[in-house]
TrEMBL record:
CDD domains: PBP2_CrgA_like (cd08422). This is LysR family transcriptional regulator. The keyword Transcription regulation applies. It comes from the Bacteria. Residues 7-59 form the HTH lysR-type domain. Keywords: DNA-binding, Transcription, Transcription regulation. PROSITE patterns: HTH_LYSR. Belongs to the LysR transcriptional regulatory family. The lineage of its organism: Bacteria, Pseudomonadati, Pseudomonadota, Betaproteobacteria, Neisseriales. It holds the Pfam family LysR_substrate.
């Protein structure tokens, strides 16, 4: 049995309130998780969890044991990190997914520097705008944009950003620019059609809110496809400022309706973030994500406060 495996199962069940979710988080089966928990209870001579067909609750013994169990896992992780640092430079394969737009320039630049600094590191990147899952797709982590989904995955924020409307100067010269978001139905709108993309476009300014359900003139299931269509003058799209503003600064794109930004139905700005299946983040993963977050700061991403 893995060191502290039963304790890890116990803490995961408590935190997820479900054997199924805990097993999924730790990459095992619900039956194996149940057996590990039973073995721990037999070893301790106390029942830690009261199970029913609908819920799992801590017993009095479980309430007493949980804080110490959580501390043991945290101490183990700390010890493993210290041993890893003593062992020298990080090595091995890091397999993760990322949105396609991160592969245009930003992420390869970070990976290139890390590969030079830590030659023992190897990377396998799955660029996809689909929602890849760390456990199902055998990933160390998954980088995602937009709005964090409600799930049992552990989140690691990278940077917040804002979404605005953009078009090419050529499109504006041929079709004009909308004076407000309400003018968009009269324009050629390019929409990202990947799963989890917001259907309603919620615009907010300092004194106005506009919500639109738009029909696409052009569609693409790729963030790169949307961006390239806009650059080619095919229409107007909503884009993250971290991606579009450098192009706007070079005169390749124009921000439209500049007083407005596009938010979630709750008024939130999106964020770039990573998700893990476990609280235990490999040192090499932390190294990469810290480098990516620092690169984002260097480039001025996320300078505005999140909403």
């Amino acid at each position: 049995m893995k060191p502290l495996w039963g304790i890890r199962i116990f803490c995961a069940v408590v935190e997820q309130k479900s054997f199924v979710s805990a097993a999924r988080q730790l990459g095992t089966s619900p039956s194996s998780a149940t057996r590990a928990l039973q073995a721990l209870e037999e070893e301790l001579g106390a029942m830690l969890l009261a199970r029913s067909s609908k819920q799992v609750e801590l017993t009095m013994a479980g309430e007493t044991y949980y804080p110490a169990a959580r501390q043991m896992l945290d101490l183990q992780q700390q010890a493993e990190d210290e041993l890893s640092q003593q062992a020298g430079a990080p090595r091995g394969l890091l397999r993760f997914s990322a949105p396609e737009t991160l592969g245009r320039e930003l992420l390869p630049a970070v990976l290139g520097r890390l590969a030079d600094t830590h030659p023992g590191l190897r990377f396998e990147v799955l660029y996809s705008d689909s929602t890849l899952e760390p456990i199902r797709d055998k990933l160390d982590f998954s980088i995602r944009g937009a709005f964090p989904a409600s799930s049992e995955l552990i989140g690691h924020p990278l940077w917040h950003y804002r979404r605005h409307l953009y078009a090419s100067p050529d499109y504006v010269a041929r079709h004009g620019a909308p004076q407000s978001p309400s003018d968009l139905p009269q324009h050629r709108v390019v929409i990202h059609s990947a799963p989890r993309v917001l259907k309603a476009w919620n615009f907010v300014s300092s004194d106005e809110t506009v919500s639109l359900n738009l029909n696409a003139w052009h569609r693409s299931n790729s963030g790169n496809g949307v961006l390239d269509a806009v650059r080619a003058g095919m229409g107007i799209a909503r884009l993250g400022d971290w991606l579009a503003e450098p192009l706007a600064a070079r005169g390749e794109l124009v921000r439209l309706c500049p007083d407005f930004r596009i938010v979630s139905s709750h008024g939130d700005d999106p964020q770039m973030h990573a998700v893990f299946a476990s609280r235990s983040m490999p040192r090499k993963a932390r190294l990469l994500l810290d480098a990516l977050r620092q690169e984002a700061r260097t480039r001025g991403f996320g300078l505005h406060p999140p909403r």
